[in-house]
Amino acid sequence: MQVNRQTCQECGSREARNIIVREAGRPMTVYVRCGNCGQLVAAYELKNYYHHGKGIESYLRGHGAGAEDSGRRWLDEFKQVQERAQSGYQSALEKLAQDGKEI
Ligand SMILES: [Zn+2]
After folding, report:
1. DSSP string covering 21-48, please?
2. Which residue, 25, 53, 56, 70, is most buried by CB atoms nearer than 10 A?
3. Strand order in the sheet with 28-34
4. In angstroms, what is the span from residue 60 Cα to ligand 1's centroid?
5. What is the rounded CA–CA span in Å between residue 17 and residue 56?
6. In 3-state terms, what secondary structure has residue 17?
7. 88 band by pLDDT with thresholds 50, 70 and 90
């Protein structure tokens, strides 16, 4: 596993601001802006995402779940995404610590 911290190519700062854009029919996009110099650092188009602590209602809205969809399927998917987010986050933090990198 390789774990990197977002770093501005322009000034080397690790202060990042996420600008989150949602548009109908397009994947959610996160623009990473440098918190120091304001340059665009990166843009990510997300196929799947999870906002910790916001619950399944937010997840369903964000992923376009309709009334005709199976509630069980969405609940299973939400639980899997939630678990992956939490365990992946922990693993990333542990890897950074192993590599001697500050967060
Ligand atoms: Zn910068």
Report:
1. E--TTS-EEEEEEETTT--EEEEEEESS
2. 56
3. 16-21, 28-34, 40-46
4. 35
5. 25
6. strand
7. very high
How much distance in Å is there from the Cα of 16 to the middle of ligand 1? 9
The structure tokens listed for 97 are 């610590």
pLDDT tens digits, one per residue of 10-64: 999 999 999 999 888 888 899 999 999 999 999 999 988 888 999 988 888 877 7
**How close is the Cα of 5 to the center of ligand 1, in Å?**
14
Q: What is the pTM of this model?
A: 0.75
Q: Which tens digits make up the pLDDT trace of 53-78? A: 999 888 888 777 777 777 888 899 99
Set out the domains of the chain in order of their start, with CATH numbers.
1-47 (2.20.25), 50-103 (no CATH)
Q: Which amino acid is at 59?
A: Y
Q: What is the pLDDT of residue 102?
A: 83
